[in-house]
Amino acid sequence: MTKRTEVITSLIVKCETLADIGCDHGYVSFEVLKSGKAEKVYLTDISPKSLDKAVRLLSEFFPSKFTPYLTDGLTDVPYIDEAVIAGMGGEEIIKILKKSVYKPVILILQPMKNVDKVRKYLHESGYGIERDFMFYAEDKYYEVLRAKLNYEDDYTETEELYGRENLKNNADFLVYLDRKIKETEQILCKNLKEQSRNAIKDRLETLKGLKDEIKRDIRID
What we know:
With 221 residues, the protein is of the alpha/beta class. Helix content is 46%, strand content 24%.
């Protein structure tokens, strides 16, 4: 099991039914059934090849514990308690959730980009965010969220942009910030138009200010 799969699976709340949306190879579903976190799993994917890989994996170990759906998101999938959507862009995740005719109580989301847009959509759609952090695995930085329907989280605007737990003592996020600061500084060394340069300078000041604020809060704690 990869660290990415381990982290995603660790955030799943024990439930009766879970949908693994865009299941790909089915590794998350396998770990969910192996650990007993769900009684039944619905595999969904728009790719017949990916769905077939997941079906072959689960058929060998849990033949009566899953149902596959060749579909987009939750279309035609029966009501489920919990859904996992991992490895897609944030806007694609939002599109899938908007198309669903019902709202799962728990969502485990791992957007590859536009995470701030996902947080904003969740808050506008009646969800609160229980867990929200960045982690480093397999040479990449990932962000993962667990949201719950009708849960109040009182997120600030900054937390919605960067993630609540990232603004606390998250070592992976601090390393990520350092890398982004260095990348931004390197961009400023290039020959840029004044408008672009000013925008990048503002971005750099924001990143440095965020890093300083996080480190100051850590020292206070």
